[in-house]
Amino acid sequence: MAPTKKSGVPLLLLFLLVFFPDPLMTEGDGEQTCRLLGKFDLHGYVESTNHSLIIGGMFPIHSRIIPENESILEPVSPRCEGFYFRGFRWTKTMIHTIKEINERKDILPNITLGYQIFDTCFAVSKSMESTLSFLTGQDEHKPNFRCSAGAPLAGVVGAGGSSLSVATSRLLGLYYFPQVGYASSCSVLSDKYQFPSYVRVMASDQSQSKAIVQLIKHFGWVWIGAIAADDDYGKYGIKIFKEEIEKVNLCVAFSETIPKIYSKAKMQNAIWAIKNSTAKVIVLYSSDIDLSPFLLEIEYHDIRGRTWIASEAWITSSLIAKPEYFPYLGGAIGFAVPRADIKGLKEFLYDVHPNKDPNDNITIEFWQTAFNCTWPNSSVPYNSDHRVNMTGQEDRIYFTSDKLCTGEEKLEDLENTYLDVSQLRITNNVKNAVYALAYALDEMSRCEEGRGPYLPGNTCAYLEDFEPWQLPKSVCTELCRPGTRKGIRQGEPICCFDCIPCADGHVSLQPGSRECNKCHEDYWSNEDNSGCVLKEVEFLAYSEALGITLVTLSIFSALVVLAVTVVYVVYRKTPLAKANDRELSFLLQLSLIIILLTSLLFIGKPYDWSCKARQVTLALGFSLCLSCILGKTIRLYSSHRASKSKVRFTSVRPICQKLIVLVSVLIETGLCTAYLVIMPPKLYKNMESQTIKIILECNEGSIELLCSVFGFDVFLALLCFLTTFVARKLPDNYNEAKCVTFGMLVFFIVWISFVPAYLSTKGKFKVAVEIFAILASSIGLLGCIFAPKCYIILIRPKRNTDEIVGGQVPTTDRSIQLTSTSVSSEMNVTVSTVVLDD
Asked: Per the database record, which ranges form the G-protein coupled receptors family 3 profile domain (predicted)?
């Protein structure tokens, strides 16, 4: 079967790709890369050198594009014709406004604005070319890439008519590029879903349509015709008008459109509807540019006697005032854009001349068009065109005027819309649009970190890093933020997922994380689980209130013991002081000072050495204290037996008391040494009690050895208590046994209460409980054993005599408690230490 003609096309394309790849490929950085072909023929004004930010602008400097003949060659960017004086005035207004802002000190200080303005020619194609140039930074088709250097583009003012704004804002909206409209009232532009980055400085057609309906209702018109331009402005405007008019029970006689490109059939339909309808009031949504060919038809068919309700786009147009159109449009009513005066604009508009910039082709074309002459040696052709609307044919004649421009022409002699500053409506909108961008940028520049509009952290955007364009999004689920992880949705594609917050102590640092990672043991997750922070370290510090209180109490108690020692030293020759074993008393006082000051080792940040020192010092201190008390109580016990026995009983000699103390301390020392050698206490970071804190405490090492160390102290305390309890019923003047008994009762009550309190607390409060127990037991022993003796020595010195202390004279003052005596029997009576009870 012979191959068909069509089957050879792929072979031809393959042949071209293999043997002629160069037109489709370009060299870039040493390797071949693909690129989109196409160059834009853009005209306008650019001033971007030495400026901080650039503002873009799109204005119709020409009224239309020149249709190109069909060609099999590469498509070219269309050219424009028909100089549009109003658009040129709008362009100059933007330049004037930017210069005014740069001169002001209260807006964008130390920041200058430049501009990049393109001609849209009232055409969507040219507007899109301008938009792509704004996005890419050059006149090539390279979306998603901005290739220009220099100041960033902060926003765009434009693009003029509603159709142009709809087209350009759809593209700019993909990148969330700020756009401020100055002449687009189409209601669809208010839809932030379709146009997320578009704002404008003029009212929407929604408001205008409602106002027109109220106007019609006010005059009692009930039968209305509707005509709209065949673009977004006309279609959406008339659509809203018909919706509003139905709400008030009025009727639309007909609804027709004016074609953007001349079509005799469509024009005839609109003319026929007007002529054959009985409606005498017609609402017309159109721009003055699109209205011009329609007015020629109205004039040709001599349609008079109609009341026209104009939209804001043409109610102030000079077309109405033209003599040839006044019989048809006279009496037209409508709502206009508010007008305003712009200070200094008139002088700026007059300050235009081709000699100021020989490369300014737009100004040269303006001069040639305005004065109907040709600028010498100009490459800009002066042209005139004529549109034959009745036949649908277009004759365009390009010619060079025989009259040469001299440069002496006076702008004051012109009468055109460029120099007409009496009705500045859209022109004022252009100024407001530029100022809207300037004020927004000024607010950005004044943003303070921590008070900005962006989350998290109320951050600011910085002008030096300003990049308004972003890639468009198309996702099932937004990317999970840091602090969350992806969770699979059963039965749905992998692109759809849930963002599950990380558990406490786990974090995800990157957006879109699949797993949460556990923080290091010294760290914990922050509030939103987006990072790990150091855990708070907790211990009983000297600087906090509780630590200061305990330190003060400990030192004060030690000073009280020291004061008791001073009393004993000063009054050492008194009977009561001599009656007590002074060595044991001083050792007992020394042990109490050691115990009280040991509590300071429990306060502050613990270390290995402090963990070892605190328990060992406390155990040795208590063993010295209790062994001294035991030496006293054994002597009391021997005195008690002597008092009860009928046979001679030898008292415990002082050397035996000291041996008891020495042996007890040596045994405790041996136990402590074994404890420190075998398994000593050390610093421990407790991370289990509280997840968000590290509690620094001491690991006591071997519990068995620790129990044996303090168990020996408990054994000594029991011996003290038992011996004094037996000796508590000595004769009336013998009551030191009672004082020691009370002291040991306080000792046991404190430490028995300590156990449940210690086990029920956590963190630094466990240490505080232990310090309270140490201080309470020490102060209890101090008060029960030494307070009564100091009372007799200092307050009741009359009772500090040999007779009373020796028990030879009974006391009658019941308010006095003699704390200690030494009863010496000169008649072979046993000598014993007792307490007198007055």
From this structure: 546-801
Written as one letter, the residue type at 455 is L
Mean pLDDT by 10 residues, the chain (838 residues): 39 35 40 51 87 92 76 66 92 96 92 94 89 74 54 88 90 89 90 91 90 93 93 90 92 91 86 92 90 90 92 86 87 91 93 89 91 83 43 41 84 87 91 94 86 74 63 72 90 87 91 90 89 88 90 93 88 72 83 91 89 89 89 70 53 72 90 90 84 85 86 88 71 60 87 85 85 91 85 79 59 43 32 32
Q: In sequence order, what are the beta bridge partners of 386?
A: 395
Q: Give the contacts of 700 (CB within 8 A, at least 6 positions apart).
A: 611, 615, 681, 706
In the CATH scheme, what is the code of domain 205-334? 3.40.50.2300
723 φ, ψ to 5°? -65, -40
Tokens representing residue 250 in the block: 């009025």
Q: Which residues of 143-158 are buried (b: 16+ CB within 10 A; e: fewer)?
A: eeebeeeebbbbbbbb
Structure tokens at 167: 């087209």
CATH number for the domain formed by residue range(s) 35-68+75-202+424-465: 3.40.50.2300
Condensed to tens digits (0 to 9), the pLDDT of residues 717-743 reads 888 888 877 766 655 444 566 778 888
The span from the CA of 104 to the CA of 97, in Å, is 11
> At CA 703, angle to CA 697 and CA 709, rounded to 5?
100
Where would I find the H helices in 282-359? 288-300, 326-329, 345-350
Topology match between the domains 35-68+75-202+424-465 and 545-834 = no
Residue extents of the structural domains in the chain: 35-68+75-202+424-465, 205-334, 499-531, 545-834
What's the rounded Cα separation, in Å, for the pair 656 and 635? 9
The C-alpha atoms of residue 184 and residue 14 are separated, in whole angstroms, by 48
CB 233 within 8 A of CB 181: no
Work out the number of other CB atoms within 10 angstroms of the CB of residue 809: 13
Element (H or E) spanning 545, and its range? helix 545-570
Beta strands 517-518 and 497-501, pairing class: unpaired
pTM of the model: 0.54
Q: Of 151, 149, 85, 139, whose CA–CA distance to 115 is shortest?
A: 151
